[in-house]
């Protein structure tokens, strides 16, 4: 598959189911997971990973910033048999890439009136980059390998 054929097929895939014991889709992000809190990343769960998946990636971003879109966290090369992420942790063997600001790791959201997307991607192979890889390289690699995805969106911050 190349170009638009690959994109068209990806659009037809069933999305992954993404949930959290502490976040609800369409509800505010609890302040504990924002820059006002001290907990770190929220826990996430997902299901519906296709049999052909070789790894999982997670991207946390906001796309409605008045200044620019921001990526707050990138985790990749998660074992495809993994189906959850615990609070303030990453799965064994997973790697973190750089955020928009250049930080490696979870960068808590700060803008109270924005939406924050927690997107889980099933990939047909590992991202294959090192910890702290540049954001542009990591996002391109995830996009090129995505075979299914799902999202939970927090609206605003409590």
UniProtKB/TrEMBL annotation:
- Similarity comment: family membership: Belongs to the UPF0098 family.
Recorded hits in InterPro entries, A to Z, give: PEBP, PEBP-like_sf, YbhB_YbcL/LppC-like
Please give the residue ranges the record annotates as the region Disordered. Answer: 16-36
Give me the segments passing through the membrane. Answer: none
- Its source organism is Planomonospora alba
Q: What is this protein called?
A: YbhB/YbcL family Raf kinase inhibitor-like protein
Pfam annotation, one family: PBP
Upper lineage is: Bacteria, Bacillati, Actinomycetota, Actinomycetes, Streptosporangiales
